[in-house]
Amino acid sequence: MVTIRVRYENGHFVPLDPLPDLREGEVIRAALLRDLSEDSAIFTMLASEDVLRRDWDTPEEDEAWAHL
Questions:
Q1: Is 26 a member of any domain?
Q2: Is pLDDT of 59 > 80?
Q3: Among 1, 2, 11, 3, CA closest to 35
Q4: For residues 2 and 53, which has the higher predicted lDDT (pLDDT)?
Q5: In this predicted model, what pLDDT tens digit does every residue of 5-51 receive, in sequence order?
Q6: 58 lies in a domain?
Q7: pLDDT at 12
Q8: What are phi and psi of 14, to 5 degrees?
Q9: Is 1 within the bounds of a domain?
Q10: How many angstroms separate the CA atoms of 60 and 65, rounded?
Q11: What residue numbers bound the domain in which 14 lies?
Q12: Number of structural domains, the chain?
């Protein structure tokens, strides 16, 4: 699976990232997902457990929550 960013412009999708090697006329399957900025509340809700663990499982976080 390859993920690229595209912009929808005048009824067409314009690639913002390099495309993989495709043959002329090749049919592909695409999924459309809105690009969510990392500072949005939606991104935070969708962040994976691994991402949250990496951000929160630190000595600084442990110290900040030690009083509870």
A1: yes
A2: yes
A3: 3
A4: 2
A5: 899 999 999 999 998 899 999 999 888 887 766 556 666 666 667 77
A6: yes
A7: 95
A8: -110, 115
A9: no
A10: 9
A11: 6-65
A12: 1
